[in-house]
Task: structure prediction
Amino acid sequence: MRAETVLIRTPEGIEFALPLAGPFSRMLAFAVDFAAIAAAGMLLARLLAPLQLFSADAAQSAITVLYFAISLLYGILTEWFWRGQTVGKRLLGLRVVEASGLRLRPSQIIVRNLLRFVDLLPGLYLIGGVCCVVSNRRQRLGDIAAGTIVVRTPQLKEPDVDQVLGRKFNSLAEHRHLAARLRQKVPAKVAHLALEAILRRDEIQPSARLVLFREFGEYLKHVVSYPAEMVEQLTDEQYVRNTVDVLFQHSSLASPETMKRKLSVTTDR
Amino acid sequence: MILDLPRFVEAERPHWTALEKTLAWLETNPGGKLTIEEAARFHELYERAGDDLTRVASFAAEGELQRYLAWLVSRAYAEIHEVRHHTPFRPWRWFTVEFPNTFRRHVRAFQLAALLTLLGAVFGGGAIHYDPDAKAVLMPFDNLRITPAQRVAIERAQEGKQLSGRKGSFSAQLMTHNTQVALTALALGMSFGFGTVILLFYNGLLLGAVALDYIAGGQTTFLLGWLLPHGVIEIPAILIGGQAGLVIAHALIGWGDRSSRAERLRHISRDVVTLAGGVAILLVWAGLVEAFVSQYHEPVVPYGLKIAFGLIEALLLTTFLARSGLSREARDAR
Result:
């Protein structure tokens, strides 16, 4: 069965999961890279155009050789200098890593890029695409030979939770032990779904909205029970808003850049 | 269990930020080294982030935080546990020592590639000999459909001017095309060698058919003069591409090797890269010779001179592949 993540256990006993990139995102990244190589080829032709004044043959041979070199070396050099990323992979948030989680070695990068010749056969990346779909770790043949995998790099964005409550008072946050339990017991998917429902409430029809927030409310009350006098005055939607505020507002993780701005760094290298 | 998550996050954030800064520095400076104190601090931050990840794992709603910490820990893990020795790349040493040594280490694969090409050549030659009508199928090139004598007459009449003004671009096309063929032979090793075997056999078949066509037409000297200067480099280069493909196939199949397939492939990856690099260099030389030497025939360049040039190249290549990079110990051991 195909895995969604690759689980790695370090000698220190730390366990972490790397989310595998799917064939579709990889295909899009390849399309971007293909366009980048084509653009580089066109730029090259323009740059070498003046050479034709002296020798058309020399200009043509330089274009042929350099274009071939660019198409062959583009993936190798970008993945080496950008630690497993090409332009397309950067845009799509993907990265090549060693299957065991260690750093990529030059020979691995070269092998996975050289074997693209066979992954591209018989055309339109068919062999590579089929291998990527059926293999356990979503590897194309080049990845299997080089012992590499392509993972998704997390896009860390702080959810816009200020919209959830505005500046209103949240009675649920008063009971810190219940708030802590809520954060512990509500699954991540449900928390994000509830946040999404609040942020997109105006796009939902009123009748459907009532049903949706009633179901969310019932579920959340089932997970953690607040004292009846606290919740009886709240509508289902308000209850969900308060809960989402508890879940995200005080614990959400800022992006690394935001963190750097906000916090003074205690340790510097 | 963390009861006060906001306080926990606020307390730990500076350490995560510090770890991230060190990682960013290491990732943008591949050759950079940390001092002992910095390395100790880096390891401490890594362990701390790992510990935080374990603690946060109990908070299901903190998926974003978990993903962030897992990504941080995975990057630090890659830096800390990567202990494999990295030798700096020295081009001259690589070409004169590593490439021929790698070639010799896998010489059986080269011999097999040569044998497959030879079988293809015998088949192609035999097909032309016993069934001359098969020529149109075996040699689907317009200029090979006329008789060898006609071809030689045309080539000699042109006195090497057929490529006038486009020798450079012709040479470039040959280099890129032949490199693609050799790298395809290499990459097809991932088909458990089937693709490589077919490609080598087909190349041999074409070669055998063309060669026999010229020999049967009484144009052996012309053939040698035309083919040897570039062929003695180009054909072995494509065979080395096939050799690399067969090395990959052997690692995939794993006859007589009890290690895992991933380990076997990891073991040969550097050799495959070395062979591929050597092939590319040989094909650049072959492309230049084919465009600037092979296309000149008598009376411009005597056939004897071209054949001698080809034989000298063959001798040098053989000596290079057989002897270059042999250490004194290895020589004594023989």
Summary: The beta strands of chain A are 5-9, 15-19, 94-98, 148-152. Chain A touches chain B through 76 residues (CB under 8 Å).
